[in-house]
Specification:
disordered N terminus; 3-stranded parallel β-sheet; alpha/beta; binds glutamine; 38% helix; single chain; 266 residues
């Protein structure tokens, strides 16, 4: 598209937004001027609250980095935040079907997922790490890929830990993957000797290792990745509004403040 046409289109969009008058959430009909959400007046977030410190239960309440970022986005958009807890597996479908507006779950941006959903700008970095028992023979990540290796690896189903180890270990004939619904269940399987290690994101790994005695995280990292919010490809207006809000919250230091509150720098 020629640059000036694009510019014209943008200014036409700005004008039409301005013409709508009232800010989101303030419309007298209760209808949002710029975008629609799953439930009117609400930003519905799909998550899996078993992933500390990004999302976890404190009593009956879902709290954590993602919950606070979503609350800040909702506030900027004049919406009330509603959080729906579900299996990690189900989040993409909830977004695609329009039941939820935003999937915030320490979710890694991957090319396959990008075919299903649109990702906002990234707001955090994750690292896949390996948890082993303190007396484990596995000393580094490379031991998992060594010739003749045959470990049983515990993962949370359909997470990137599952996806990578399936490719790198199972498909290469270097071991088998045991898939669990929750990261904590995989860690429990490690504790009871059902699996030889667990591949999972570094922050929940730290939380689990702090809770369960006799485990440690290998110093070598498996892979570094970007976390972003997943949104529908069919609601461009909401995507633009959420993405812009998130960009502002990153730029003004709000996101960093939230992350720092939960993750103490070593
Ligand atoms: N970052 C990992 C992924 O996107 C794990 C996320 C999670 O378990 N909540 O697959």
């Amino acid at each position: 598209m020629k640059k000036w046409i694009a510019l014209l289109l943008v200014s036409a969009m700005v004008l039409s937004v301005a013409a709508c008058g009232s800010a989101p959430g303030e419309s007298s009909k209760g209808e949002d001027a710029r975008f629609t959400t799953a439930v009117e007046g609400k930003l519905t977030m799909a998550t899996n609250a078993t992933f500390p410190p990004y999302e976890y239960l404190e009593g009956n309440e879902i709290t954590g980095i993602d919950a606070e970022i979503a609350a800040a986005i909702a506030e900027k958009l004049g919406l009330e935040l509603q959080i729906d807890d579900m299996e990690f597996d189900s989040i993409t479908e909830a977004i695609k079907s329009g039941k939820a507006d935003i999937g915030l779950a320490g979710m890694t941006v991957t090319p396959d997922r990008q075919e299903e959903v649109d990702f906002t700008v990234s707001y955090a970095t994750g690292v896949q790490v390996v948890i082993v028992t303190q007396d484990s023979a596995i000393a580094s990540v490379d031991d998992l890929f060594a010739e003749g290796a045959s470990h049983v690896v515990g993962v949370q189903r359909n997470t990137t830990g599952d996806i990578y180890t399936t490719d790198d270990i199972e498909k290469e004939g270097l071991g088998t993957i045991d898939r669990y619904g929750k990261g904590a269940e995989a860690v429990q399987a490690l504790k009871t000797g059902k699996v030889d290690c667990v591949v999972i994101d570094n922050e929940p790994a730290k939380a689990f290792v702090a809770e369960v005695e006799g485990l440690k995280i290998l110093e070598t990292e498996y892979v570094t990745e970007d976390y972003a919010a997943a949104m529908s490809k069919d609601n461009k207006a909401l995507y633009d509004a959420v993405n812009a809000a998130l960009e502002e919250l990153i730029a003004d230091g709000t996101v960093k403040g939230i992350v720092d509150k939960y993750i103490t720098a070593e």
